[in-house]
Design brief:
alpha+beta
């Protein structure tokens, strides 16, 4: 029985991998990408009235020439004595100015009872270069809402409403267009 469950799990994993392989075979080139692992602390006093600690925001998002996207991000936030974790599958992404990525997607896991699985989350990240003389990379907070708000966020070139804040870690944003 146990061996049968293991075989079934490998079969399911294989089916999930098929769309990724098909997308690669289709020949659609990567035109934008963003990845990294970052964390930050927004100390008091701030607009939220509590210290906000992100540890980490890990992300990997890709946009292809045909307009399709793939990727995932995980966000863990500590605020007001609570630790909340979110997993999000990327549904939209755009790069603005060559170094700023706006990434959004559908929430697949949430430990916050006010953010349901099936809602949407988004953020933007700034890649400010590499090396000792580069400014720190930056990020907005992760926002949450519905599918329309998610898509509007990704499609808008607007800067963050709150932030951006300097982060520790590294964000990489690139574009071929």
């Amino acid at each position: 029985m146990r061996l049968r469950n293991v075989i079934a799990l490998f079969g399911i994993a294989g089916l999930v991998a098929v769309p990724v392989a098909v997308a690669s075979v289709s020949g659609s080139a990567v035109v934008e990408s963003a990845s990294g692992g970052i964390h930050w602390t927004i100390p008091l006093p701030n607009v939220f009235g509590i210290e906000v600690v992100s540890q980490p925001l890990a992300f990997d998002a890709t946009k292809y020439a045909d307009g399709s996207v793939s990727g995932h991000f995980e966000y863990i936030q500590k605020a007001g004595g609570d630790t909340l974790k979110f997993d999000v599958d990327v549904t939209c992404m755009n790069v603005y100015g060559g170094n700023r990525a706006k990434i959004g997607g559908i929430v697949t896991q949430s430990s916050d009872p006010t953010i349901a699985v099936g809602s949407y989350g988004w953020f933007q990240v700034f890649d400010n270069g590499e090396g000792a003389n580069a400014s720190p990379d930056q990020s907005s907070l992760v926002g949450f809402g519905n599918e329309a708000a998610n898509q509007a966020f990704c499609d808008s070139p607007n800067l963050p409403r709150f932030g951006p804040w300097d982060v520790h870690g590294n964000a990489r944003v690139s574009t071929t267009s």
